[in-house]
Each structure stands twice: as C-alpha cells, then as structure tokens.
C-alpha cells in the first residue's frame, strides 16, 4: 500500500535534528519503504471548479509563523505501519501537524 504523508511543523535549525533525520531517511530508503520525499510550499494555489468555471486563488496561507512543509511517499503493508512511521518522524522533529492519505494505483 502506498501513502502520501504530509507535515507542517515549526522550523528547527538544529544540527542534531538533521543528523537524526538523515539516519531515519537513509534507513527507510535502504529498506525500500521511502519512495520519495521533499519540502513543499505551504501556500500554493487553490482551484475550484463549479458550473463549468474554474476559479484560481493563491493560498490557503498559514499564520505568520515560521513553518516548514514536507511530504513523503511510502510503501508499507498497512495504514497502521504508515502511522507508526509518522510517530517515529514526530519523535525526531517534535511538534507539528501531519496527514496520511492512501494513494490508489491503477
């Protein structure tokens, strides 16, 4: 099963965090669990299609705090396994918000 895991968290510029996160990413990559990861823009663009018209607006925007966004695509056996990976991730970075969504394949 593949899952998209997204995170928004306060920015921490901590060398120990980068080292620990690097080891975590290396472990998941070596095991074949981590398929893709990276940072992401928090605001983005929102599109709404209604009655044949498409409205494009900037945002949504976060509060004026210093936040970072990121994503990972993982392949695991179950949703519970994805949740456990997310728990390990937050054990490294600390506070933040996350979301896990299953990705369906043709």
CATH names the topology as: Alpha-Beta Plaits
Mean pLDDT across every amino acid position: 91
Q: What pattern of helices and strands is seen along the backbone?
A: EHEEEEHE
The parts where pLDDT drops under 50 for at least 5 residues are none
Write the CATH homologous superfamily: Dimeric alpha+beta barrel
The biggest sheet, with number of strands, parallel, antiparallel or mixed sense and barrel status, is: 4 strands, antiparallel
In helices, the fraction of residues equals 25-40%
Portion in beta strands: 35-45%
What would you say the CATH architecture is? 2-Layer Sandwich
When the domains are counted, the total is 1
- What would CATH call the class? Alpha Beta
Order of neighbouring strands in the sheet with most strands: 2-5-1-6
Structural class: alpha+beta
- In angstroms, what separates the terminal alpha carbons? 12 Å
Helix tally?
Answer: 2
Using the alpha-carbon principal axes, give the shape: globular
> Total number of β-strand segments?
6
- Backbone CA Rg: 16 Å
In short:
The protein is an alpha+beta fold.
Explain what you see.
With 106 residues, the protein is of the alpha+beta class. It contains two helices and six strands; from the N terminus they run βαββββαβ. It has one domain (2-103): Alpha-Beta Plaits. The chain has helices at residues 15-30, 79-93, and strands spanning 2-10, 34-40, 45-50, 53-58, 67-75, 97-103. The strands form two sheets. It has a four-stranded antiparallel sheet with strand order 2-5-1-6, covered by helices on one side. A two-stranded antiparallel sheet has the order 3-4. The protein starts with a strand and ends with a strand. Residues 12-87 form the YCII-related domain.
């Amino acid at each position: 099963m593949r899952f998209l895991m997204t995170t928004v968290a306060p920015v921490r510029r901590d060398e120990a965090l980068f080292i620990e996160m690097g080891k975590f990413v290396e472990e998941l990559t070596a095991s074949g669990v981590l398929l893709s990861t990276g940072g992401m823009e928090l605001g983005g663009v929102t599109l709404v299609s209604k009655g044949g018209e498409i409205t494009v607006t900037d945002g949504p925007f976060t509060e004026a705090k210093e936040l970072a966004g990121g994503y990972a695509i993982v392949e695991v056996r179950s949703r519970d396994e994805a949740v456990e990976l997310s728990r390990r991730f937050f054990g490294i970075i600390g506070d933040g918000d996350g979301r896990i969504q299953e990705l369906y394949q043709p």
